[in-house]
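Section handout 9: paired folding examples.
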Amino acid sequence: MARAFEEIAERLRRSTVEVRLRGANAWANAGGSGVIATADGQIVTNAHVAREAGASVRLWDGRDLPATLLARDARRDLATLKVEAGGLPAAIFGDSGALRVGELVMAVGNPMGFIGALTTGVVHALGSLGGFGRQSWVLADVRLAPGNSGGPLADASGRVIGINTMIVNGLGAAVPGSAVTAFLRRGASGISLGVTVQPVRLEDRRFGLLVLKVEPGSPAAAAPLWIGDILTGAGGRPFRSVDDLHRVLDDTGGVIHLQFLRGDRAVQREIAIRLARPVAEAA
């Protein structure tokens, strides 16, 4: 039994890669992990790991390969990279819908410089998380650390049933495998605004979305929206979660009327932005 588990764990480790970002002068230590999705070099990871073009992927056998960003969905925190290689040990994806609380799971990643580190635990909960909209997550009591992001969460048979994304109240939170396989089938989709945002609570207890990044050449840049602006609503309706912004983007006919705060935040402003279909960014 122990021998069988070791073999399953080793197969999962070989399907896990290290993703590294290029810094200004050298390869940055910051990065994360990824999962080989196809034998011809398609790799799935977190959008916050593959947050910009120019990444390197290190395979289990030590090879370092340059990677091309194919698609990025900031809403679901997923991205796909492509390396020029064949015959890679692709992971097997399982049915996350069949998961049950208490089921044994394992996570592989590259936390704090430890390559191919493996940890085990059990599924703690399934479903949405407070403050993160209505999207589903797999919560497990696996030990994660910086560098695990983008790596696999797998069942006892080694089938990938989630992509590890963050730590919430001491538990590992993973994007369910069903969302991952759907993303791999469609790539990035929807309307692009071209911003990276973070939920914030304003002084008067209103909800807002702090703009952390504006993509050059995006509709947000043309408007313009600035880093530090706080988006508060659209079409006169206040935002209550990140999902509200994405829902507006999905439902729009091409122009979005955003309410936002800037500078001293004393005056609410409004701007009309003409949107565009994305090339590699979904939100």
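Moving on to protein 2 of 2.
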Amino acid sequence: MRYSARAIPHIPFAMKLIHITDPHLVTPGTRLYGLDPQLRLRQCIDDVVAHHGDAALCVITGDLADRGEPAAYRALAAELERLSMPVHPLLGNHDSRAAFLAAFPNAARDAHGFVQAVVRRAEGDFVFLDTLEEGVHGGRLCDARLGWLRARLDDAGTRPVYLFMHHPPFAVGIPSLDRIALLEPAPLAAILEGRRNLRHLFYGHVHRPVCGSWRGIPVSTMRGLNHQVSFDLTGVDDVPHSHEPPAYAVVLIDDDHVVVHFHDYLDRRTLVQRGDEYVYAA
């Protein structure tokens, strides 16, 4: 079946945002789970540069490095220099706050030194949270971080708010991940309760495409840039890894809706018809 290009009119969006998560960089030249995280990141940035230079923001939701190595953060900083839009890297449980800040000395921080910030745009307030609790894999929002968030949400008033964090504050149904999600999420839920201007919550950590809602807030994440987490709804103790393809998200935002596209950026092949068969175009 052929579709007319005029059948569905183009709907312009007010804003495009790039969401990347879990690059897990290591010292350049070494591999992780048999793969090269630096190459995977470079290929991702190549794709963003080639096709989404019009994006207004790029947010990376944590686990920037796998072991918090200074060389990994320096490599990340060099790759991100190639992007034309502002980039906001967040911290995850594999990160080192000190090593990150050494490589990103201009990263926004709150008064307590946590890597938290708000970007205010015409489309709304984009709020970036620091859930890193060094020494454990689960995430945490301490009283200081929660107080900062409450103040920022109060400042937003009725403006649309988009939240970004590494650890999901809810279970995703994969037991090995749910035990290392955000620890003690109830105080966060209390702060968010009743705020009808929360448009979307973007997170990382789970290395899987997961969408849904939490307490009425739409949520989404996707596969990471290097290794993935296998779809195992029963295992508890060990996090199972896989070589499923990496992805990043292209987020389109308008006044009345948010659309999140997951893009497996290593495969841009398209099918063409040759006789009665369909094959990938050269």
